[in-house]
Amino acid sequence: MKFDTVKENEVVIIFGGTGFLGQLLNRFLKYKGYTVWTISRDKQNNSDFEWDPYLKKFPVEILAKTDHIINLSGANLMKRWTENYKRQLVESRVISTRFIRELIEQNRHEIKSVINASGISIYGDRPNTLLTENDKPGTGFLEKLCVNWESEAREIRKLGVRTNILRISPVVHYDNPFIKTQFMAARLRLLAPLGLGTQYVPWVHYTDLLNIIHFLMTIPSCNSTYNVCSPNPIQQREMNKIIGDHIGKNQFAWSIPKQIIKLILGAKSQLLTDSIKTTPKRLIEAGYNFKYQNFSQALKHL
């Protein structure tokens, strides 16, 4: 992974910094010259500091030395969605973001910006509708989760701290469980269309995601909500073909009925079957130039 080095001499706190994305971001920002502190609830995760948003525990003295906060906290979406775990999915995001707002509100700080994650799933299933940040959220479980998550993040903005909310798409990187599963199936020639395979899949190359986060941290006029996705979403059937071509194996052509997927995965099936055709309108208007706009090109640079 190669990035342009820019000496910044600023301090960044990453909440949820020990996960897949947090680790990438940690390396990237350190390469850029930032001092990066990772915060985790798990003592075994080799984080720099520990916190507990439920018990409201946090080393508040570090806030006075912090320039930027990046909040990636949240329980893993890839686990089984029992009713108890669905509550955990919501609470791990909403409560952590609320506690960050309380920390900023109640303590001395010099924070210049906050980056708060959200999900591109906020729009729900919208076949063939090109969605921008101005479109209304959907009404399903994931959509409501994202709405509540973003609502807490906007409360931080009310404190006068520049706050950018990122509706993140599936990240194209080998360590992303979604991409890893796709490649494993493709090697077995079992990357079948899910449902009709015509649903649109938003995506973003990890290099663009990291650059977008840095872009939003450093551009003072950016203080909004952004679709973090390639300008070119593709249909799932086309994505399968490109992955198959990339590894040199034709894929199993029969589709898996949507009803079967829902029977196996329950509500979690919407991660695979919803059609979300988004465009990064606000990022483009803000002046960000995507390095990888074509999915086939993106796979060649992993």
TrEMBL record:
It comes from the Bacteria. Keywords: Cell cycle, Cell division. It holds the Pfam family DUF1731. The keyword Chloroplast does not apply. Gene3D superfamilies: NAD(P)-binding Rossmann-like Domain. Residues 256-302 form the DUF1731 domain. One of its GO terms (biological process) is cell division. Residues 12-229 form the NAD-dependent epimerase/dehydratase domain. InterPro entries: DUF1731, Epimerase_deHydtase, NAD(P)-bd_dom_sf, SDR39U1. Transmembrane segments: none annotated. Belongs to the NAD(P)-dependent epimerase/dehydratase family. SDR39U1 subfamily. This is Cell division inhibitor. It comes from Ichthyobacterium seriolicida.
